Structures are given as C-alpha cells and as structure tokens.
Amino acid sequence: MDHANQTGHxxxxxxxxxxxxxxxxxxxxxxxxxxxxxxETFGHVVAAAESGEAALECIDGASFDVLLTDVxxxxxxxxxxxxxxxAMKPDTHVIFASGFDASLTNNVGFPSHALGKPYEIDxxxxxxxxLPVRTPDAVQP
Length: 141
What we know:
The chain is α/β, with parallel strands linked by helices. It has helices at residues 3-14, 29-41, 52-61, 78-88, 121-130, and strands at residues 21-25, 45-49, 66-70, 93-98, 113-116.
C-alpha cells in the first residue's frame, strides 16, 4: 500500500474516533517531526520531546492520553520514562516504538503496546483508535 492510501485510510478511521493528546518522544529529529505531523493531520493534539528528561518536563506541565516513545533514547530509556510518566499520570496509555524485537517490552510490569520500527502509519492509527479513553477531559474533534 502506498503512503497516500495509508494516509487516506487512517484519516477515515479517525473520523469515528476522538482526538487524543499524544506526547511523541523520539531522538531522531526527522522521524519525530514526521510522526508529529501525521498525528496532527489525523486530528490529534501533539507535543514532542527528544529525550526522556525533556518528556518528563512536558508531562509535569500537561496531561496526555498517550505516551508514544522510542525504547532506546539517549540518557533515560523509553521504558524508564514510561515508568516515571505512569507514576506521575497513571491514566496515560504507553506505546513503545522500537527497532528491536517487540518482546523487549513484554515484561515491563505495566500495561503497554509495542510497534516495531519501521511501522505503518495505519498500524499506529489503528492502535490509537482502539485505545479506551481513560481521562474525562479528552479532546473531542
């Protein structure tokens, strides 16, 4: 499936779902910008951070429905970030993105989802659409 078809299909899926507040944590700047742009195109409210430490500052100042984080980050790992984020905001959904085997995040001790890199944008959008809304003030489109 080409990118245009992927984007169109994911946009159709969004039409029946609520917008989510997503924090994207990715140290690869090009990938971070691309993912943020696509998520915004799908109607989600997006913030971004390049490290776990920067992400914690974002989480301290705002609420997010979803933490989408790379597993391997400079400094704090994505797994350690997720643990700290959930201690601060336990209603946050965690999605790990990694070029490593998805089984790496199977036994982290808290509910999470995993996407193998490179992932299809349809797979990410389908996962986002499937998440139950946990926070009472979720953004509506």
